[in-house]
């Protein structure tokens, strides 16, 4: 797996944008990736220094389809990446705050 297979996409919500001031960024990642793989991928893609990675496994929501059986969205994993104090910021998130 390369770095772009591990980091799927950023998570853009009000709460995640509020954490950008503290150098915390939220990404949706591959469900089988571990913390060290996520750290290496973020450092390779964005050229920053990562201090800490927290991961959350999210269960997919059950959705109605109008008939039995009900449908279900896929499970996914989120990663909250905290950068070091002396690291530069990720430019992708600059215009959104």
What does this protein structure show overall?
With 97 residues, this protein is an alpha+beta fold. It has one domain: Alpha-Beta Plaits (2-Layer Sandwich), CATH 3.30.70.330. The protein has three helices and six strands, in the order H-E-H-E-H-E-E-E-E. The protein has helices at residues 3-6, 14-18, 35-46, and strands at residues 7-10, 24-29, 50-58, 62-63, 71-72, 76-83. Strands 1-2-6-3 form a four-stranded antiparallel beta sheet. It has a two-stranded antiparallel sheet with strand order 4-5. Strand 4 and strand 5 (71-72) form a beta hairpin. The protein is elongated.
Number of strands: 6
How would you characterize the largest beta sheet? 4 strands, antiparallel
Can you tell me the CATH architecture?
A: 2-Layer Sandwich
Q: Under CATH, the topology is which?
A: Alpha-Beta Plaits
Poorly predicted runs of 5 or more residues:
none
């Amino acid at each position: 797996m390369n770095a772009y297979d591990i980091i799927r996409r950023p998570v853009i919500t009000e709460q995640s944008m509020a954490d950008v001031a503290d150098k915390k960024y939220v990404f949706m990642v591959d469900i089988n990736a571990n913390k060290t793989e996520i750290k290496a991928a973020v450092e390779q893609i964005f050229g920053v220094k990562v201090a800490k990675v927290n991961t959350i496994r999210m269960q997919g929501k059950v959705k109605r389809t109008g008939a039995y059986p009900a449908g279900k969205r896929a499970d996914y994993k989120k990663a909250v990446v905290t950068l070091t104090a002396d690291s530069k910021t990720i430019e992708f998130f600059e215009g959104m705050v």
